[in-house]
Amino acid sequence: MLAVAVHTPLHDGAVPLGSNRRINLAEAAVCYSDSPPPPPLPNPPPPATPVGAEQDPHIAFAGGGRADFRGHDGSYYAFLSAPGAQVNVKTEDATFKLHDARLVVDGSFITEVHVIAVVGGWKKKAFTSSFWGAALNEFNTGHGFVNGSCGYHGGFAMLVAHSRRCEEAVTRVKYSSATISLRGWQIAIRGNHVYGRVSGPTHRLDVSFAASSGAASRDAPHGLVGQSFLSEKRRSGKLDAYPASGRIATSAQAEGAIEGSAAMYEVASSHATRFAFSRFDAEPGLEPDEARSAPGAGIM
Fold first, then answer.
1. C-alpha pair distances (Å), 19 with each of 10, 12, 23
2. Which helix (H) or strand (E) holds 31?
3. Which residues contact 280 (CB under 8 A, 6 or more apart)?
4. Cα(4)–Cα(22) distance, integer angstroms
5. Mind listing the pLDDT tens digit for each residue in 161-175?
6. What is the CA radius of gyration of the chain?
7. Which residues contact residue 162 at a Cβ distance below 8 angstroms, ignoring those fewer than 6 apart?
8. Could you give the CA distance from residue 211 to residue 219 in angstroms, rounded to a whole number?
């Protein structure tokens, strides 16, 4: 540390011998500078809301705005669809209590998340990675709640604190969460208990999406959430109104915030890629309308 010697004056201005003390330069500047102290640093901005769906389920879009989405019990929906990659989720009906059990909600949760992709360039390996909420235990963790497949290597089950690579796709599993990274997209999935549960699944999944610079413009994605990455437009859809007490049945299906209706995003099974706006078989850079007009778009 740099230091300066400072003489401490007496009241009459004399400087006694042997009264030197050592202070650092910052202290000297504060004590003897004629400049006013710098203004305090501004508060950091609040953290951005993750793009995706959480709780029962509330969707946050990439350009801002929100919508609620109930889905239909046991159905699968395409949340993100891009060339050679898709993310499907399953919704299940549930009844639970909020507001210190003063409100009973007949709603739904996401209970499964499935990533389907073609990886390895010319190798065209089929890759899947699935997160199963039903496989979580009372400690909100477990063995094998994430599993998948990698081309001719066959299936795999993931352990906590492990990762697995399949060409450019990487799956990482933590205590009760997982992330799948794939060609500039990152899908984060978090498991949690259904608190205040009356009936239905015991665990729910929250899912969020992030795109690296250029991924969205390259892929022109679609899907219930994916379409919001195409522009900075704020999307505001239907929201369910939760009273302080009583009973409510949720009904919002993201109306007003998505192209078409929720039914147009349903897929036939957990790993199916065919739906009205599928981008799975499109080439990167191909406009969405061109991709949809291609014969046989998507797979069952």
1. 10, 15, 13
2. helix 25-32
3. 81, 82, 83, 84, 85, 86, 116, 273, 274, 297, 298, 299
4. 6
5. 999 999 999 999 999
6. 27
7. 172, 173
8. 10
Furthest C-alpha separation in the chain: 97
Pick the CATH number of 52-293 from 3.20.20.80, 3.40.1000.10, 2.40.170.20, 2.60.40.420: 3.40.1000.10
Q: How many CB atoms lie within 10 A of CB 97?
A: 15
Q: Give dist(CA 155, CA 144) in Å, integer.
A: 12
Give the burial class of 206: count Cβ atoms within 10 A of its Cβ; 0-12 exposed, 13-18 middle, 19 or more buried.
buried
DSSP line for 152-192 = GG-EEEPPTTEEEEETTEEEEE-SSEEEEEETTEEEEEEEE
Domain ranges of the chain: 52-293
HSE, CB side, 13 Å, CA atoms: give it for residue 70. Answer: 18
Burial class (CB in 10 A: 0-12, 13-18, 19+), 163: middle
DSSP string, 208-267: EEEE-TTHHHHH--BSTTGGGGG-------------SSEEEE---B-TTTSSS-GGGGEE
Average pLDDT over residues 223-233: 95
Q: Does residue 33 have a pLDDT over 70?
A: no
pTM of the model: 0.81
3 state SS of 5: strand
Query: Number of helices and strands (H, E) in the chain?
Result: 3, 19
What is the number of alpha carbons within 13 Å of residue 176 lying toward its C-beta? 16
CA-to-CA distance for 107 and 54, rounded, in angstroms? 13
Q: Which two tokens stand for residue 254?
A: 């993201």
Note the pLDDT tens digit of each residue in 188-197.
Answer: 999 999 999 9
Residue position matching structure tokens 């609040």: 46
